[in-house]
Amino acid sequence: MSKDVAILGVGMHPWGKWGQSFVGYGVKAAHDALRDAGLRWQDVQLVAGGDTIRNGYPGFVAGATFAQALGWSGAKVSSSYGACATGAQAIGVARAHILAGLCDVALVIGADAAPRGFFAPTGGRRPDDPDWLRFHVQGITNPTYFGLYARRRMDVYGATQEDFAAVKVKNARHGLHNPNARYRKEVTIEDVVGSAVVADPLHLLDICATSDGAAALVLASMDFARKHTTAPVKIAAVSTVTPVFPNTIIEMPNLATDSSASVGLPELGFKESIAHQAYEEAGLGPEDMSLAEVYDLSTALELDWYEQIGLCPPGDAEKLLRDGETTLGGRIPVNPSGGLASFGEAVPAQAIAQVCELTWQLRGQAQGRQVEGAQAGVTVNQGLFGHGSSVICTV
Amino acid sequence: MTEKTPTPAVEGLFTMNPREPHLLGTRCGACGTYFFPVEKTFCRNPACDQADLQEVELSRIGKLWSYTSANYKPPAPFVPREPFEPFAIAAVELEKEGITILGQVADGLGVDALKTGMRMELVLRELYEDDEQIYMTWSWKPVEGDAG
Questions:
Q1: How far apart (Å, rounded) are the C-alpha atoms in residues A324 and A173?
Q2: In Å, how far is A299's CA from the nearest CA of chain B?
Q3: pTM for this structure?
Q4: Chain A contact set for B77 (CB, 8 A)
Q5: Domain boundaries in chain B?
Q6: Region A355-371 average pLDDT
């Protein structure tokens, strides 16, 4: 049985700091996706919302919140949370419903209105919550982890701060013509390394901002899609894997790794396993990909992903970047959308936005940033507390 | 004026011996897996169905896996000293336990004092104080006498 589902429509609300409710952003993205699909809201049988945890109760029940805002229609509802991987959770729910034959058309929506500055845990004294504990007893923020990984690349692979800056320069250039990007301005290596150090060796311009934004997808069974369109972009795989014990690389929001004292290391590390599972499911490999959208929370993290999604062996990411292979026009453009560097992170929308970009690229509609002849693409992302997220799309 | 008492910022994470503090973890007696912070009710090794968890003191010395800094004041629930001073943060691998543990780097030492692979030892560090008490946490410090 084919595991493909069709992407009939995509839509986004531009990223930024708009000072409005996340619900309105989500509705705008949903309307755009429905219009793109040529369907009405009443045609949707399942609405799968990605939750936001910083917008009160409506954010925890995002699916119903969006359904109410679009006008109660009796559609089935689901609300999922997986931190930065929230969008993949919602896509996974919608896809599973379609593949199981429980519905033909599903609407996936993620939207956020983000606070300024560092993400911080929700209130109260909660020593049993690793997220609270790391802030309280050690002052460890998200950029701490980005800094640790970046320093590790420098000490183990000889990466430089200029390499990291070059990722930002590339992504800023990619995002220049993307109407949904928040930052549409070229930056130079000097701009990046001259900006304030936030978490050594990373500077302010190495680290992504937090943004408002929304993204939506209309997904459908292949049978339904064939009645509406000729050659829809398809989702060939969705990976939402957890780590395999012991996970020995320190990860947000933990203060410590698993212990490897009694059990040997798994064949693949967690981040390596995320896209790997998607490739297995799609029956494709990294060599089949025309482009990738990876989660560049920091510039250095983008380089880690090159290796973790199989674009090059460990330690070769800087060379791949320097050779221009991951720039538009190169062998495997990475983040042609402009990535988080150009968007900032709108947590529950981000993994969905990655799929919107793949869709536009695979349809040949990515104006000003088109990967010529794109046939297949992969997204990858990871959410706190062990949420893998990778989607493969094909034409 | 009475002297303020040093007290752990959160109970149960480390011992308060000022010269040789230890982080407190648990070890599963059935499979030998360690946990930090303590895990008391279940063993997270998927191959182990026991939960024979004993409290243990973890190794005080490990190897620096990587390091970074906090140049901006972290948000609450962090309680910064005033005025805020940037601090370094280390990820240290404990060999026997097979665990990497994060922690601030001892007072006065920035990233320039650190090098991946160097030996680090556990010391206590003042996190913040109020009218009655000084709240302590653990931190990592390069082992004295080790050549970079």
A1: 13
A2: 15
A3: 0.96
A4: 120-121, 125, 132, 135-136
A5: 60-142
A6: 98
